[in-house]
Amino acid sequence: MKEFKDKVIWITGASSGIGEALALALAKKEARLILSARRAGELQRVGKLTGLPELDLMILPFDLNDTSNASAWAAQIINKFGRIDMLINNGGYSQRSAVLETSEEIDRSLMEVNYFAQINLTKVVLPYMKRQQSGKIIVISSIAGKFGFFLRSSYSAAKHALHGFFETLRLETESLGIKVLIVCPGKIKTNVSLNAVTAKGTSKNEMDPSHQDAMSAEECAIRIIRAIVQDKEEVLVGGKELLLVTIRRFFPKLFSKLVRKQSPY
Question: What whole-number distance in Å separates Cα of residue 70 and Cα of residue 48?
Answer without folding.
Answer: 25
